[in-house]
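Sharing a chain and its predicted structure for anyone who wants a worked example. Both blocks are below, sequence first, C-alpha cells second.
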Amino acid sequence: MKEVDNFYLKQEEPTRSCLMALSEIILSQDKDITHVLKYGMPFFCYKGKMFCYLWIHKKYQKPYIGIVEGKSIDHPDLIIEKRSRMKIMLFDPNKDLPLETIEMILTEIMKLYKVV
C-alpha cells in the first residue's frame, strides 16, 4: 500500500468514497498524471509538474479539487477565495459528481502544461 492510500483510508464516509472517485477521475485523464502524497495531501502531477490536489474544505467540510494553475481559466464552478494562483472546486459527497465538468476543467488545465 502506498503512503497516499492511507490518506483516503483515514477519511469517513461518504467523503472517502468521493475523494477516491475524484482520484480515479483525475488519474484517468492522461497516462502522464502521477499520484503522490505532498504536504500531507494527495497531489497529482502532470509530466512532473504539480497539477492538482484533493483536500477537505475546513469551513464547509466538503471535499474539493485544488487546481494549481486555476487562475488561468475562468469557470463558474471554480472558486478562488483568498488564493492568488489556485482555484478550488467543491463537491457534496452525498451527490453525484459532475463528471463532464470535472473532465472539461482538467482538460483545459492540461492544455496549459502542454504549451509550456
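Comments welcome. The chain has a mean pLDDT of 93.
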